[in-house]
């Protein structure tokens, strides 16, 4: 897999199977902070519990962790990843996040590991397809929906997955994603989210879904 530099100076990889990079060219760190961290309000939450679809290079995880460490709150992070990258590859992706990088270096020594604990909190990784996985109900304060795009990977964005994510998200919790695709937004609404179009950075629109009402099923 080819290593590429994004415009904010942070690295990403290009996945030849999906024909897409793991992060937008505008910036891996930029997207993790401005979209996933901030649009879900993870950076303000006193006890954040993040559910992520697509752990990838762990950029979103490290950004959430850096924020939690800076604020002195514990982070609980549950990721679903069907194609974990080898530790040698992950070790090449360093980020300007000193506190989180120290934790990530220790994590890599045990990688691939399904449970990693520390005084900072806990990371659990479910090494399977999100379509097959069972998720804890009403657990998450935020969902980071970050598989490859609906065009390249439509199954990860379908109604069954979105209903599952909704059931695992607490009422009032937020799901964020970079996709603004119409079919995806309609399915998100059907799954029990109030759908907001938000201005993107380096992209016209992102999507935020707020968990309202009862989850379906
Ligand atoms: C765009 S990358 C994620 C980048 C990552 N969030 C980060 O912070 O570096 C997409 C990831 O989703 C994973 N993925 C794609 N489809 C999936 C599925 N159906 N179930 C679980 N993981 C999936 C891919 O293996 C890949 O690692």
From TrEMBL:
Residue limits of the MnmC-like methyltransferase domain?
A: 122-209
* SUPFAM superfamilies registered for this protein in UniProt: S-adenosyl-L-methionine-dependent methyltransferases
- A Pfam family found in this protein is Methyltransf_30
Give the residue spans that cross the bilayer.
Answer: none
UniProt xrefs under Gene3D superfamilies: Vaccinia Virus protein VP39 (3.40.50.150)
Cite the NCBIfam families for this sequence. tRNA_MNMC2 (NF033855)
Protein name, per record: tRNA (5-methylaminomethyl-2-thiouridine)(34)-methyltransferase MnmD
Originating species: Thermus composti
